[in-house]
Amino acid sequence: MDFEQKNDTSIGFEQLNQTMSRYNKNKTMISPEDLNGRYKKLFQKLKDQLMHEAVSYLHPFLIKGIHIYGSEEGKALVDKINSSLSESGFYQAVGAAIYKDFDIEKAVRLTEEQNLKIRNDFYEPYRNKHNIKEEAL
Q1: Which one of 70, 78, 98, 113 has the fewest CB atoms closer than 10 angstroms to its CB?
Q2: Among 56, 66, 68, 65, residue whose Cα is nearest residue 107
Q3: Is the four-CA dihedral 43, 26, 36, 91 of positive or negative sign?
Q4: What is the 3-state secondary structure (H, E, C) of the chain?
Q5: What pTM value is reported for the model?
Q6: What are the distances in angstroms from CA 55 to CA 12, 21, 38, 94, 136?
């Protein structure tokens, strides 16, 4: 087993797409009363699965080209980036793309845009300071 990060997201995409389709079908074909009543636990489990798969699928798009060391400075940068993601409404926008629009491509687009913003606003000074070579994208 090697430890290289693989960028094979096609399997993740198919699984995410199937789970999103099941969520959409449940959301549109089952009454809200039933989803909040007798199917509450099952529907919550499906929503949790969808969230987990979306995070797993989108994470590589968010961190592409970013290498942060485990130093105190690196941890501070990660905290700053996480704070920026929360404050910018990124999580809400991606959540809406997944749970309301049922649009994986839109979620990927939002994530790639956020990656570019992180790279330009936060990572570039860190990269230059630590002489980290930029990888070809």
Answers
A1: 70
A2: 56
A3: positive
A4: CCCCCCCCCHHHHHHHHHHHHHHHHHHHHCCHHHHHCCCHHHHHHHHHHHHHHHHHHHHHHHHCCCCCCCCHHHHHHHHHHHHHHHHCCHHHHHHHHHHCCCCHHHHHHHHHHHHHHHHHHHHHHHHHHCCCCCCCC
A5: 0.81
A6: 10, 17, 28, 10, 24
Rounded Cα distance between 132 and 137, Å, is: 15
Q: Does position 74 have pLDDT exceeding 80, yes or no?
A: yes
pLDDT per position as a tens digit, 79-133: 999 999 999 999 999 999 999 999 999 999 999 999 999 999 999 988 888 877 6
